[in-house]
Amino acid sequence: MAEPEVRIEGFQAAVDEALQDVDMAGGEDGEGLEVEEVANGDGVEEVEQEEPDARLLVGEGEDQTLLTAHQALLVKSPFFADAVSQFSAEATTRRIEFANEDLDAVGCFLQYLYTGEYFPKKVGDALEADPAQDAGDDGDQLLKHARVYTLAEKLGVTELKSLAHSKVHRVNSTARGELAYARFVYANTPRTDTTIRKPIASFWGQRSHVLRHEAEDDFRKLCLEYPEFGFDVLSFVLDVRERKGEGKVEEPKSGRKRARNQ
Questions:
Q1: How much is the pLDDT for 16?
Q2: What is the pTM of this model?
Q3: What does the alpha-carbon distance between residue 156 and residue 77 come to, in Å, rounded to a whole number?
Q4: The predicted structure's pLDDT at residue 73
Q5: Residue 39: pLDDT over 60
Q6: Is 104 a residue whose pLDDT tops 50?
Q7: Most exposed residue of 108, 243, 251, 252, measured as fewest CB within 10 angstroms of its CB?
Q8: Per-residue pLDDT, 129
Q9: Is 52 within 8 Å of 33 (Cβ atoms)?
């Protein structure tokens, strides 16, 4: 039996075979995520036959999309648990606005809530093929998982955050795709998040002497735009050299860097 399929009308033709009879449709009528049958999972059976009772308004202006889901699942996220607690018991409309969030990332989050996965799924050391992505440049795939990662961080869903990060390492990309991914990460994560930043520094520290020539202008711009990126890459290179013994220098005999007459 095929797994359920998720569709966001007007956004992507088919996100996954993960939620059959589930339709995440944006529109003025508010017909969002309708669940008739969902995969087994913690807490899923309890809401299986209930109507979705929470609404998520994603985006702004003409790009706004209204999704609906089950509150009983949403509250597994500390962010949503807090948001739901603000509703009065008499409230007939329970709407949470996500003006600045990516629609696809929110869709992946909902997929994960209902199935424990999101498209594309992991297949060994690779990912399922995504027909919606350009085969020539996987920068969009890297950004997709990075957006899911940052959303999961905001929502406090640690397992989804780890899943998204594991998928990043299964994407083969180009130099420009990697730079677009690095720019997003350094723009949307704190300096303390070494889980996602350290592998980026390691990647460019090991390959920048080759890859930067494929996108040298973009590489330079990123270093200037986000000095932390350049510093992290340089620190990685220097650490490697130091471990190899190439970074040893003689201690200066004087505390002065230059002789007085220089």
A1: 35
A2: 0.74
A3: 6
A4: 92
A5: no
A6: yes
A7: 251
A8: 83
A9: yes
Q: Two tokens at 224?
A: 């200037």
> If you compute the radius of gyration of the chain from its CA atoms, what whole number of angstroms results?
23
- 190 has pLDDT over 90: yes
Residues in the chain: 262
Instruction: Give me the mean pLDDT over the 10-25 stretch.
Output: 35
Determine the Cα–Cα distance for residues 186 and 225; give it in Å rounded to an integer.
Answer: 10
* 97 neighbors 79 (Cβ within 8 angstroms): no
- Token pair for 28: 């003025």
Residue 4, Cβ neighbours under 10 Å: how many?
A: 20
In the structure encoding, which two tokens stand for residue 144, read together?
């997709």
Sign of CA dihedral 201, 206, 208, 211: negative
Pair of tokens at residue 123 = 């297949």
Instruction: Provide the pLDDT for residue 84.
Output: 85
* pLDDT number for residue 135: 58
User: Can you say how many angstroms the Cα of residue 159 is from the centroid of all Cα atoms in its chain?
Assistant: 12
> What are the φ and ψ backbone dihedral angles of 134, each rounded to 5 degrees?
-75, 120
Find the farthest-apart pair of alpha carbons in the chain and give their distance in angstroms, rounded: 86
Q: Which amino acid is at 56?
A: L
CA distances from 120 to 26, 133, 168 (A): 22, 11, 11
Please say whether the beta carbons of 119 and 133 come within 8 A. Answer: no
**Strands 95-98 and 54-58: what pairing?**
parallel
| DSSP state letter for 104 | H
Higher-confidence residue of 13 and 131: namely 131
- For tokens 């520094």, the residue is 201
pLDDT in tens, 244-259: 875 554 554 444 444 4
| Alpha-carbon span 174 to 142, nearest angstrom | 10
248: left (phi over 0), alpha (psi -120 to 50) or beta: beta
Q: How many CB atoms lie within 10 A of CB 24?
A: 28
